[in-house]
Amino acid sequence: MRSLLAVLTVVAAIVAIWYLAAIQMNSKWTRDQAARAGIALSFGEVVADTMAQERPVLPAPHQVVAELWKTTVQKKVTSKRSLVFHGWITLSSTVVGFLIGTVAGILLAVGIVHSRAMDMSVMPWAIASQTIPILAIAPMIIVVLNSVGIQGLLPKAFISAYLSFFPVVVGMVKGLRAPDAMQLDLMKTYSASKGEIFWKLRLPSSMPYFFASMKVAIAAALVGAIVAELPAGAIRGLGARMLTGSYYGQTIQIWSALFMAALLAACLVGLVGLLQRITLRKMGMAQ
Amino acid sequence: MMVAQAQSPTAPVIAADHLDLTFQTNDGPVHALKDVSLDIGKGEFVSFIGPSGCGKTTFLRCIAALEQPTGGSISVNGMSPDEARRNRAYGYVFQAAGLYPWRTIGGNIRLPLEIMGYSRADQAERVKKVLELVDLAGFEKKYPWQLSGGMQQRASIARALAFDADILLMDEPFGALDEIVRDHLNEQLLKLWAATGKTIGFVTHSIPEAVYLSTKIVVMSPRPGRITDVIESTLPPERPLDIRDTPEFLDIAHRVREGLRAGHAYDD
């Protein structure tokens, strides 16, 4: 109960600051309009106007909520104006990319843990790959893949995978190396093979690390999917929605797409968390 | 330097002959074991006692083929330690129980059995048998975190016993437990030893523990790691806990302490 109060207080504070900022930022346009028309406005009128502009610098929270409501509940999901439709486009490439990235990450980690050569040769490249801004490399991936005939979902998914494999590699390398010397010695006293050590010791030990890195990876995959929609001039997806919004100064549209993306990310991370709880409970590791 | 020969009627189970082990470190070579010769006969309970760095754990690890000696020779059941391990000659109990948290107690004991390829029916039977042996019957389906530290260590002993190795190697198995639990486990270990007739190698820091448990006490000293004394215990096989107050017990404890002092174990 106490924590609920604390959470609500923080939310209320954020909303209050947001409203104040909206009034402050949008009032300039209101005053300019009024001056041009030669009308004097009272403070109350200025505030009322900043809450209801069509293209505000910063939309008020209720405007964003209204837009979200209008574009999700009140639109058919097949409509080009439905955020559910655009969210689904982004979600599908996020999930495909996340799966590719996770599988690639696990395979790389297994290789790195078992081969010193791979440890020395792959890890620096994995790190280097993440130092390049995704915004710079995304258009190139799309252009290159397009030239070999890969279009649609896959190029976007690749960019998601590009961002999401890294946390999985780092987490899984750490996780697969989690067993201490004593546990490895124990396996040695049984004359266990490398495969048996992997399946019976390393892999189960890595599970808590695996889920932690998957949470990071799925959020990164969503960012990747959205960024991938920007350079291709895509017309579908949350990224495209933000892009067209910025072309036409539709700030409310941008913000609602932004919130949709945040909501999506929260759901995905929550889903991974749920999977983690179920798996660890089944393994007997959730006390 | 004393070289001891076991007065065993049959061939020794473990025979170390002028064993050397030198670790190369950045600060130069470290002589973990130097010229260690020791025979352990079948069914003996041998304790290794000495200060840190005397090589008692290293010697145990050489028997288990977890370390490779740099000189001398060692045989286990008449084979090289490597071969002996492949023939499931020994079970090893570490200082920590090291049970897998994602396996139940039964599942942990099944681990070596799965790796060694026992049938499922055989596995179930063996798990039941060894759990009774360590007084943990009924705990098969519990997870390690549901057990106390002493019970976890008993489960790890059960795990080492599950595949019928003749030798049980124990590296300070009760070192992390409090004294009351330790007394209880020592008593149980003696019963288990009497019931199974295993050859036991037992590393410890505790003089009373070594004297109470062993038929033979090997006193070691550091820099270089070597054997300074081998004491054949004169205590009877039946040993209630209060045997530790008898003059005979105190005599042996005194001799162990003398051996440690001779090896400069009490120097700064």
UniProtKB/TrEMBL annotation, chain A:
Keywords: Cell membrane, Membrane, Transmembrane, Transmembrane helix, Transport. GO terms for biological process: transmembrane transport. The chain crosses the membrane at residues 88-113, 125-145, 209-232, 252-275. The keyword Heme does not apply. It is a multi-pass membrane protein. SUPFAM superfamilies: MetI-like. GO terms for cellular component: plasma membrane. Gene3D superfamilies: MetI-like (1.10.3720.10). Residues 83-276 form the ABC transmembrane type-1 domain. It is found in: Cell membrane. It comes from the Bacteria. Pfam families: BPD_transp_1. Belongs to the binding-protein-dependent transport system permease family. This is Putative aliphatic sulfonates transport permease protein SsuC. It comes from Pseudoruegeria aquimaris.
From TrEMBL, chain B:
Its EC number is 3.6.3.32. GO terms for molecular function: ATP binding; ATP hydrolysis activity. InterPro entries: AAA+_ATPase, ABC_transporter-like_ATP-bd, ABC_transporter-like_CS, ABC_transporter_ATP-bind, P-loop_NTPase. It is an enzyme of class 3 (hydrolase). Keywords: ATP-binding, Hydrolase, Nucleotide-binding, Transport. Residues 16-243 form the ABC transporter domain. This is Carnitine transport ATP-binding protein OpuCA. The keyword Nucleotide-binding applies. PROSITE patterns: ABC_TRANSPORTER_1, ABC_TRANSPORTER_2. It comes from Pseudoruegeria aquimaris. The lineage of its organism: Bacteria, Pseudomonadati, Pseudomonadota, Alphaproteobacteria, Rhodobacterales. Belongs to the ABC transporter superfamily.
